[in-house]
Design goal:
By secondary structure, the chain is mainly alpha-helical. The protein contains 13 helices and 4 strands. The strands form 2 sheets. It has a two-stranded antiparallel ribbon with strand order 1-4. 43% of the residues are buried.
Amino acid sequence: MIDLAVQRYAFFALLAAALFGASTPLAKLLVGTMPVLMLAGLLYLGSGVGLLAIHMLRRILPGAGAALTREAPLPRQDYPWLAGAVLAGGIAAPILLLWGLRGTEASSAALLLNLEGVLTTLVAALLFREAVGGRVWLGALLMLAAGLLLAYDPHVPIGLSPQALAVAGACFLWALDNNLTRRIAASDPMQIAMIKGLAAGGTALGLAFAGGAALPAAPALAGAMLLGLFSYGISLVLFVYALRHLGSARASAHFSTAPFLGAGLSVLLLHEAPSAGFLTALALMLLATYLVLSERHEHEHIHEPLVHSHLHRHDVHHQHVHDGSEGPEPHNHPHRHEPLTHSHPHLPDLHHRHRH
């Protein structure tokens, strides 16, 4: 039985995965028009510039995204976490990946890239002490198995080389990025995604220009940036919302469906019959998704005193007083949580990061 009241934000992660997964077959239409590094830079930059335009419009136009404009801006104490996420996932990981791809077969790299989901779960559990139950571990491992099956090519030998380790290292850095971003997920997801897109896009384009690349023709340039807005920018905004409400391990498990959604779109676009390997991987993916969606985590837990700011409505966890200046709900303002002990189904969201 799936508890939609608790698990509803999982669908944000699944929609984020669908948007990101669509980028693979659609980006292939642009690969021949520009170098790979230039394409990566334009995808990231498209997300950052597009989200910046939306961010400005929603503040200028009256009533546009009224609730979204009330999201909490990034406080200064979150800047180091954001800087770490940008450096790890937006700059270092792509550089490692691109270097690794130069000496690694594409099929081997595709296999290695499936490590990100299970590494995110490991980092969440071991470094950030996130509560990860047996169903989530099993779901992450099934998703890994499905990804390996989807990317496996029996005709290409898999070897361990410095380049292959670099691809795996990129996955670890993205796993670290996911967990660092989770630490700041109470703040405006659009602001977070915008900054990450601008930083990653600027870095990738700088490297591309340093290597002698030039901007592509206007149609390819516009296509790449528009694809980046949806598949990288809006996808990341949805993923940050999922991180806020689900935690890193569960959001990442759902986001691991992206390769299957991308492969399914490729089958539809190319009018190909799905292979037996694809259908088997799809079955494993569906089972993994069900395991994580149907998880029920309930026990008596203690809420320690906490002061923070984020978009919220009044509920059992928000019983603070107001001075009348906060505006309509949902609203954002600094508020204090008094100590509370109770029991109910929950996930490791902003208010349930207690010890187990």
